[in-house]
Design a protein that fits this description.
Helices cover 24% and strands 33% of the residues. It has 5 helices and 12 strands. The strands form 2 sheets. It has a 7-stranded mixed β-sheet, with helices on both faces. The chain has a 5-stranded antiparallel β-sheet with strand order 11-10-9-8-12. The N and C termini lie far apart (40 Å).
């Protein structure tokens, strides 16, 4: 079984840990399961080029390199499910009960505590390499958005960032067998979805509608029941109004 964290690159500052890991991969000096972590990212990125803000040395900003032996592009969504659940498991270890806000955010109640950015290099219909960016608010107390929190804000306890990294490495490694159990992985992911089964307001094509999250489709789309119909939405097509 692959063990994440056997090779670790620790940086004071970098534009993006995902970018740095990608460059090391191109140069052939990074191995499967390697980690790049930084105290500060000058251009940390979220999903669809959103900016990830983090105070220096206060949070976990890391990228994990995964070189799958035989993973089809059609199975890429399983990586998102596996990593999301591993982050949820990590937070549980620190007594933080979090949910997955589809598709790439980790929330505690209505506040964001973390997020993922998964980037791939493909070769035909196969995935050649995957870089998994993870950002978790650990000790930061002040944010430039009201919709954010941290482990310390929730628990009042200051945590060592390195300890957090090793715990996440353990969770990612121990949960890897789930990748070969797609149905179980999907159902477990669905069980941790933020606001699932709750009647709420969504924005669809600039129109407000009411619906209930029912789960996800086989390719990862969000399944929402609107007017007694279960509809599937890709990322960017629907937004929860919080």
């Amino acid at each position: 079984m692959l063990k994440f964290g056997k090779q670790v690159f620790k940086l004071n500052s970098v534009d993006s840990t995902n970018n740095y890991a990608a460059n090391l991969l191109k140069d052939g000096i990074i191995e499967n399961g390697a980690v790049v972590m930084a105290d500060f990212q000058t251009n940390g990125r979220g999903q669809r080029s959103n900016v990830w803000h983090s105070d220096p040395g206060m949070n976990l900003c890391a990228s994990f390199v995964y070189l799958p032996a035989n993973l089809a592009l059609s199975d890429l969504i399983t990586i998102n499910w596996w990593v999301s659940l591993s982050v949820i498991e990590l937070l549980n270890k620190f007594s933080v009960k979090a949910r997955i806000k589809w598709p790439n955010d980790i929330f505690v109640e209505d506040l964001k505590v973390g997020g993922l950015l998964i980037e791939t290099v493909n070769q035909g219909s196969q995935i050649k390499s995957i870089i998994i960016g993870v950002g978790i608010n650990v000790n930061q107390l002040d944010f430039n958005t009201i919709q954010a929190t941290s482990i310390k804000k929730i628990s009042g306890i200051h945590h060592n960032i390195d300890d957090m990294l090793w715990s996440l490495c353990d969770s990612l490694s121990s949960n890897m067998p789930l990748l070969s159990q797609r149905d179980l992985l999907k159902s477990t992911y669905e069980a941790h979805l933020f606001r699932a089964g709750v009647k709420q307001k969504f924005l669809v094509a600039d129109h407000a509608v009411f619906g209930e999250i029912q789960g996800v489709g086989s390719s990862g789309q969000l399944k929402v029941r609107i007017d007694n119909q279960d509809l599937l939405f890709d990322h960017g097509q629907i937004r929860v109004i919080i």
